[in-house]
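Researcher: Good morning. I'm working through a list of sequences from a screen, and I'd like to move beyond sequence-only analysis. For each chain I'm collecting a predicted structure so we can compare shapes side by side. This is the next one on the list. No need for commentary yet; just the structure.
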Amino acid sequence: MTSLTVSTAISSGRVQLVNVRQRSLLVAKLRVWFVVGAFTLIGLIALFRIVWIGLAGGAEDRGGAALPPRGEIVDRNGVPLARAFPAYSLWYNPKALGDGPALVKTPAEVAAALVRIFPDEDQARLTAKLASGKPQYLRRRIMPEDANRIHLLGEPALEFPRESERYYPQGSMAAHVLGLVAANGHGRLGMEAVLDKQLTDPAFRGAPAVLALDSRVQGALEDELLKGMRLSNAKGAGGIVLDVDTGEVLALASLPSFNPNLIDQQSVPNIFNRVTNQVYELGSVMKPITVAAAIDAGVLTDMARRYPANALQIGGFTIHDSHNFGASLNVPEALIHSSNIVTAQVADQLGGARLKATMAALGFNRRPQIELPAGFPIWPRGDWARITTMTVSYGHGLALTPMHLASAYAALVNGGVWRPATLRKLAPNEVPQGTRIWQASTSARMRQLLRMIVSVGTGRKADAPGYRIGGKTGSAEKPGAHGYQKTSLITTFAAAFPMDKPRYVVIAMMDEPQGTIATSGQRTAAWNAAPVIGRVVPRIGPLLGVMPDNSRDVDISDLAPLIASGDGE
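Model: Good morning. Structure tokens for this chain:
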């Protein structure tokens, strides 16, 4: 064999070897890809099955244990306000031992042992329940460790059924909005009752019910109302924070409040909602509404026009002011001093029919539009007589809820459009069209006047640097069996901010405040309700995206020369 032949053979062998190796590598790669593909296919099948079970079988699961027995309620930022969780109860079953004695020990002995576990329980009450021989709850919501301690007592009649309990993580905060759940598992009050179907429906209870409330704003409002209530020694208080463009209620408070986790006989009277259920003659907070109606109707065109400010005799009635403000006042002066006399004359010019129509358009002749149960206003029926028109113009003879007032003031400052209030968080495309009450120019004028009341008038204690607050005081005697009670006042401050571009209305109300050292012995709104506004706005403004800005304000240059300094109510 020649060298050439040998070389050729070697080369041919190498080529064959390379081909074998290439074929082997190819086969190995194909095997790997096959295995990977098989596992991928198995994974996809498993994933498909999981998805299918979730979708096809979810209808059954949604009614099962995977979902809470009652849906969660959260605020607009997702903070939990009400949720359900499993818990134990203490149930007395006197038939646990058959026809024999219900208890191993005497009812008194068992009751004493239970009081050692639950020191807050009434031993006599427990003894009576155990001696009655009737099956009943002895205590709702007990901890597992307490159940273990009760089990060690050796009483078969004491059972621990596992149940679902409603829990309110924020305690008493927003209690009048949330309400509570009855023993039957259905909502009893508040939004728990309003949303009961949604919260119990398996198709919906997996997703939380979202309220318009902002728990941060709610907490600040309640805190400042409680402070104002204590400083003035008032027996109650109420407040609202309302978005002027959407009608969303960001906070609603009625004090004293209650804890829906701990309902007892002492807290039952506090369940009543002063903001939506109770109607009041709200006094001078109605004056800007009267003035706006007169401006819009073309009756009031000259802010410089002066009206006599002496006591006004109408038939057998006398209309007077809290102070003597001189012989005459123009409308800006009348508002910053809170003159009944001038407001009555403006209303007289406007006429009862037009004032009544404006107030009816604001919903003052019907229950306030909000999801909660609401009180029906006291509304003068028929044609309004001259004296009725005058007294209603400054907030007497017409009784409303603070909720009515909040929605009206929103329309007063937002360009003139009234919208119903809502406790549901709205999507951007859900904002209702609303009803036009006033022209935009009228609303702009009222923003000027309301700002002046706070900057130089009766509302000065509501001012907060940089927040451009505007608003109006209102102090009214409560009616009683023998006429108006001079010692019992409802005081209110209706405010909006920032007045150069209003975003929120804030209402603060005090029920029967007293003259105290903190209020310099005064009982009017200027001394007790207005300061609440001055404290709460700086707390909630930054939370709502409104930062203080001392370089901005409402332009009142055309009205400023018309006013003189002085005090009103």
